């Protein structure tokens, strides 16, 4: 973001938001955004993991079946993980991008597309420290309902050799998993690496996303810069975040599909396990066709657009600065 862009999140008495304010802005934006769009994200995960259209015909069908089977709160399965970790994740993403822009672009005053993309790349690398384990745990919880429906449809069939449990003990695989149990079992059996399964796929998704999103947002938002107020309006920042987010989300959907498949620990009857990114892409292409790489693209756009619109709106309003001001 240019200095003009950043000024919209700065209180009148400061020239630039502090690191603490940036972290608060990112955290608040993440909490609000996730609460609003999590059901659509759940539908995305289930659509990406299913083979064909045996269970869900689309996003609406998925949400309706989930609500009927598990109630309204069933659509928020796995939300606790996101709500817990999205604050540091979004805070790191926004603050890291801002830091790299300041570092690479002479305090952010000179607009340079290459430097903007490089700053986005740095933000993507930094955020994956939190994003990978967060997504790992969230996906298991989100996909549990699809697996339950899959079991009901094939109750008389023998267990698949590729089916895996979260637990290596005798606990029933039909019990609903919890994030704590999954995390503990992964740490106990695989160490820290277990929580970072799919790290390469996560990097391949998040780095291109940030490279596309941040420069696109900065340039779109700059179009609404108002010299009299010294910032873009909230509405313009929100729309810029939505547009940039949806474009970036749809563009990297194939990488998100691969990441989701790789990170899913338990498989339904007849579903493959994958040894890596190349193996996953090859099997997906051969067995389900190239269109499978765009599964959940619409859901991703519907999730990311408001999520990043809210994030940038909150960031530019300067909620963090206002909160800190109350404690002065």
Q: Concise description?
A:
The chain is mainly alpha-helical. It is built from 13 helices and two strands. The chain has helices spanning 3-6, 19-49, 59-70, 79-104, 113-153, 179-190, 192-195, 199-222, 234-251, 253-263, 277-288, 297-317, 319-326; strands spanning 225-226, 231-232.
Total number of strands: 2
Oligomer: single chain
Low-confidence runs (pLDDT<50, min 5 residues)?
A: 1-15, 156-173
* Proportion in β-strands: under 5%
Largest sheet: 2 strands, antiparallel
- What's the total helix number? 13
**Estimated structural class:** mainly alpha
How much helix is in the residues? 55-70%
Terminal Cα span: 27 Å
Radius of gyration: 21 Å
Can you lay out the helices and strands and say which pair or pack?
Elements (H helix, E strand, L loop, with lengths): L2 H4 L12 H31 L9 H12 L8 H26 L8 H41 L25 H12 L1 H4 L3 H24 L2 E2 L4 E2 L1 H18 L1 H11 L13 H12 L8 H21 L1 H8 L2
Antiparallel strand pairs: 1-2
């Amino acid at each position: 973001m240019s200095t003009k862009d950043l000024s919209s999140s700065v209180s009148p008495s400061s020239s630039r938001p502090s690191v603490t304010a940036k972290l608060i802005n990112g955290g608040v934006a993440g909490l609000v955004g996730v609460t609003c769009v999590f059901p659509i994200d759940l539908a995305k995960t289930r659509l990406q993991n299913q083979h064909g259209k045996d269970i869900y015909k689309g996003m609406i069908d998925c949400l309706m079946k989930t609500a009927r089977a598990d109630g309204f709160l069933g659509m928020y399965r796995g939300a606790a993980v996101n709500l817990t970790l999205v604050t540091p994740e979004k805070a790191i993403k926004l603050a890291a991008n801002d830091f790299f822009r300041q570092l690479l672009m002479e305090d952010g005053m000179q607009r340079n597309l290459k430097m903007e993309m490089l700053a986005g790349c740095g933000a993507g690398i930094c955020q994956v420290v939190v994003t990978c384990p967060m997504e790992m745990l969230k996906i298991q919880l989100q996909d549990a309902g699809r697996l339950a429906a899959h079991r009901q449809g094939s109750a008389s069939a023998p267990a698949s050799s590729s089916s895996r449990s979260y637990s290596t003990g005798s606990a029933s695989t039909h019990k609903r998993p919890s994030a704590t149990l999954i995390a503990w079992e992964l740490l106990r059996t695989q160490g820290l690496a277990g929580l970072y399964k799919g790290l390469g796929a996560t990097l391949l998704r998040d780095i291109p996303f940030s490279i596309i999103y941040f420069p696109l947002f900065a340039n779109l938002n700059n179009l609404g810069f108002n010299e009299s107020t010294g910032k873009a309006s909230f509405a313009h920042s929100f729309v810029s975040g939505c547009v940039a987010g949806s474009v970036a989300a749809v563009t990297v959907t194939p990488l998100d599909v691969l990441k989701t498949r790789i990170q899913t620990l338990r498989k339904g009857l007849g579903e493959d396990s994958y040894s890596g990114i190349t193996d996953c892409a090859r099997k997906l292409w051969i067995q389900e066709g190239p269109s499978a790489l765009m599964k959940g693209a619409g859901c991703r756009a519907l999730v990311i657009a408001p999520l990043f619109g809210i994030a940038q709106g909150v960031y530019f309003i300067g909620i963090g600065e206002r909160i800190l001001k109350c404690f002065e």
